[in-house]
Amino acid sequence: MFTLLKQEGAARRGQFETVHGTIQTPVFMNVGTSAAIKGGVSSIDLKNELKTQVELCNTYHLHVRPGDDVIYKMGGLHKFMNWDKPILTDSGGFQVFSLAKLRKIKEEGVYFNSHVDGRRIFMGPEESMQIQSHLASTIAMAFDECVENPAEHSYSKASCDRTVRWLERCVAEQKRLNGLEETINKHQMLFGINQGCTYEDLRIEHMKRIREMEYCSGFAIGGLAVGEPTEVMYNIIEKVEPFMPKDKPRYLMGVGTPTNIIEAVYRGVDFFDCVMPSRNARHGTLFTWNGIMHITNKRYETDPRPIDEHCDCPACRNHSRAYIRHLFKSEEQLGGRLAVMHNLYFYNTLTEKIREALDEGRFEQFRNQYSSLLASKCED
C-alpha cells in the first residue's frame, strides 16, 4: 500500500494507496475535528480550492456529538461530510486524557466524563475501533494512553506496556469489524502509535514491539509537541526513526509549524496534522513565504497587496491585506474564513513543494532556504 519513490538522506518521497484514493507523501492532513474545518471552510473548498489530500476527524468528539450511530445511519463520514478523499480518524485517546477532568484508567480502558454534558463514558480499544468503524474512515488510529509530559520513567514504561496490549486488542477488533456484512468500509486500515514520553530507551523499545504487528498499515509517533523543547522532539524522532518499518508511512501526530514539518521530513516523517494553521488564522496570524504575518497590524491598513504575492489561494487572488485587516477589525466572519483558507492552502502548498524538491533531489537546498525563514517575522 505504501511505495517509497525516492529518498534524500532520511527524507522520504512516497505514495500511499487507500480505498479512497492515493495519498502523495509527505502530506499535511487538514484538521476537521468535528467533521468540519473551523472557520467556515467546506469540503468543497478543501477539494476544489485548497489542495487538500486528507482530512482528519476525531473519534471522541464525533462520538459525543452528533454520535457515531447517527453518522453510521447517514452512510459514514464521507457521505456525511460530502468528502470523497481519504479521512484519518484520531482514536480519541488524546482527548480522553486532555479534556476529561475526571478519568479512571483501568486495563479494560478509561472511564471519564464528557466535557459537553458530563455524562459518564467508557472507552477502550474495542469501543474506539467500533466508533471508528461506524465513522467508516479510511485510516483508524489505535487507542493509546497519552501520558503527561514529563512523567516518571516507571509510569511511562507501564503505560507503554499497556498501549502495546491495547494495540493488540485494536488489531483483533478491527479484523472482526472489517469482516462484518454491515460494516461500511471493510478496508479500513489501522495505524499503531509509538509512546514513551521523552525517554529514548522507552521509545525505541516500544517501537520495536509494535512494529512486530504487521497488520498495522502505518505507525505514528505520539505524545510529542505537548510542551517539550523542539530539539527534544527532533531528538526523539531521530532515535525512533531507524526502528520504524521502511515500507510503511510514518506519522508525527499534532505537528506543527511549517519549520517543524520541514525538519521532521528531514528526519524521515511522512504524515502531519495540526490545528495551528486554522486556529492561528482565526486570530489573524498568517503564514507566508516571507515569514509570519499578523494581519491586524496597523501597517496593513492601506496595503493594497495580497497577503502573500507568491500565493494563489482564493484570499490572495481576490482580496487585499487592507480589506482582510478591515474584516478582522470589524469582526466580520469573512475575515476568519479567508485567513483559514490562506493558511490551509499554504500548508498544503508547503508539502507539495517539499515533494517537488524531493522529486528533483534538492530537498536539502529547500530546507536551507525555508526552514528558518518560515519561522521568522514577515518584514514585507
Automatic annotation (TrEMBL):
GO MF, one annotated term: glycosyltransferase activity
Catalysed reaction, written as an equation: 7-aminomethyl-7-carbaguanine + guanosine(34) in tRNA = 7-aminomethyl-7-carbaguanosine(34) in tRNA + guanine
Primary enzyme class: transferase
SUPFAM superfamilies: tRNA-guanine transglycosylase
Residue span, tRNA-guanine(15) transglycosylase-like domain: 10-370
Keyword Mitochondrion listed: no
EC numbers: 2.4.2.29
Keywords noted in UniProt: Glycosyltransferase, Metal-binding, Queuosine biosynthesis, Transferase, tRNA processing, Zinc
InterPro entries for the chain: ArchSynthase1/Queuine_TRR, TGT, TGT-like_sf, tRNA_ribo_trans-like
Active site per the UniProt annotation: 90, 273
A Pfam family recorded for this sequence: TGT
Cofactor(s), by name: Zn(2+)
Binding site for substrate: 90-94, 144, 195, 223
Pathway(s) per entry: tRNA modification; tRNA-queuosine biosynthesis
Region (RNA binding): 254-260
Function: Catalyzes the base-exchange of a guanine (G) residue with the queuine precursor 7-aminomethyl-7-deazaguanine (PreQ1) at position 34 (anticodon wobble position) in tRNAs with GU(N) anticodons (tRNA-Asp, -Asn, -His and -Tyr). Catalysis occurs through a double-displacement mechanism. The nucleophile active site attacks the C1' of nucleotide 34 to detach the guanine base from the RNA, forming a covalent enzyme-RNA intermediate. The proton acceptor active site deprotonates the incoming PreQ1, allowing a nucleophilic attack on the C1' of the ribose to form the product.
PANTHER family: QUEUINE TRNA-RIBOSYLTRANSFERASE (PTHR46499:SF1)
Family classification: Belongs to the queuine tRNA-ribosyltransferase family.
Assembly and interaction partners: Homodimer. Within each dimer, one monomer is responsible for RNA recognition and catalysis, while the other monomer binds to the replacement base PreQ1.
Name of the protein in its database record: Queuine tRNA-ribosyltransferase
Origin species: Ruminococcus bicirculans
UniProt gene name: tgt
